[in-house]
Description:
Layout: H1 3-8, H2 11-19, H3 23-38, H4 43-58, H5 64-68, H6 72-83, H7 97-104, H8 126-130, E1 155-157, E2 164-166, H9 167-172, E3 176-181, E4 185-194, E5 201-203, H10 205-215, H11 221-235, H12 241-258, H13 263-292, H14 295-406, E6 410-412, H15 427-432, E7 439-441
Helix pairs in contact: 3-4, 3-6, 6-7, 11-12, 12-13, 13-14
Organism: Vitis vinifera
Main location: nucleus
Protein name: OBERON-like protein
Amino acid sequence: MSLLDIARGEVDIISQRLKHLSEEFLEGLKNELRVILEGADGSQHGDEFLILQKLIQKRGDLTANTLTGAHRVQLEILVAINTGMQAFLHPSMSLSQTSLIEVFLFKRCRNIECQSQLPADDCTCKVCANTDGFCNLCMCVSCNKFDFEGNTCRWIGCDLCSHWTHTDCAIRDGQIGMGADVKTGAGTTEILFRCGACNRTSELLGWVKDIFQICAPSWDRQALMKELEFVTKIFRGSLDSRGRRLSWICEDLIEKMKCGMSESVACRIIMFFFQELEIESSRRKFEEIGRMIAPQEACSRISEVLQEAIAKMEKVEEERARMLKKARLDLEVCDRELENKAREMMELKMERKKKKEETEELESIARLKQAEADTWELKAIEARREAERLQSIALPKSHKAKKEHCSGIVISIPMNLPLCWPMKLTSATAAWLPWDYFTWEA
């Protein structure tokens, strides 16, 4: 039994054969398919996967009725080949037989975390109607892929049909560009997103502002830098002043964060920018009202707009004052830290100087002791030489005195003594007698 047999064999026959195989063999088949799916980008494994997928997709007998009698492992393998996803081979995958059949037949979302019935929300757009297995709740309209990233500018949602597109896919396919201002109409332009599903446009500046206001507090440093990069990509080609300024600010914040700026400060700066944009919008609204309506109504509207603008300006000013106060406190903390570090540095320098002086003093004492030792060694050598000299003088005199003392002693040896008589002296006596100084007479 091989993967090729499962891909082209009749469902009921393969199911019966699989029932008689061991669990180890069945797990081996699934592992073999995992290896093929993991290396699908390579030439060899990619060719194997395409062959298996084409065999399955060309078959007309793989219906809901026939698949109902399929072996569980057989169905998991068929679904994994058809979708190109390893998740359906995982031991912890707990989808029911019916759900697997619906995924295989593109009636249920292949995203295990979603599992919506297709078409999602009974959508009748051209994408949902014509793309097998597409789910407008979790998949990109352009690439038909899904991921598990949320609360991010990586995905752009259509304001009108709620279909989603990867930001990179939208930029690649030319779905992001300049267009007439959605709110004011002709006369002003801004960066817009054109949905690939409904072909209608959505403004992106307000969308980015909403994303940052809602999600930025939960982003860490790396996430914030990534989001700033996405915003820079979106507004890099903007021709209106607001979009250009947003792109410049994001680029500047990325560089400053690389040099050490904290994510909280960067987040507050871009929030400031969005608040300033709101004030500018209110000012433009005020000017338009003055041109379009009657004086009395204009005064009323102007009063409302002024109050709203003043409230926003006060809010911005309060935030700015709070940030300034915090910046001053941070600066004071930094100054104190610098003073402490400078004091510690001086203490370390003094300690180092003290250690150096102690080391030099010890080295001086060591040199002095070495000089004293050398002096005593020279004196010892001179004393040894003097002792040797005195000994060389005293030794001949001692021998001479002994000889003079013993020269007057005459030892008479009787004639009848044996020749070996001196040998009968004790060894102690014979040892100290200076025999060569005696005068011998027979």
